[in-house]
Amino acid sequence: MGNIKFTSKEEKEYTLISFEMDDVLIPEDLANLTPPEVSGSKGVVLSGRGPIWLFCFLTHFYHPTKFIATYDPRLGGAVIVERHTSGYEIGSVIKC
């Protein structure tokens, strides 16, 4: 099983969930992942280097939150990819 380390940092509008992998993650590892719990009253920003299917898994895991965004260092922020409340638009960038 690949080793993945999660950290979380609370911000005003969102919780930043970062991850690092010590080894190669394989799809079967998803069954044993336990990402940090977050408050549904905020959004979630995901940050880390990993396979697309890991981001899909995390997006589903954090589905009940206000919004989900993925951090892109080239943009200096996170792109909103899912939302459940007004005031956050798909494709907009949150500066982080």
UniProtKB/TrEMBL annotation:
Spell out the Pfam families in the cross-references: Cas_csx3 (PF09620)
Domain of life where this protein originates = Archaea
Protein name in UniProt = CRISPR-associated protein, Csx3 family
Species of the source: Methanosarcina siciliae HI350
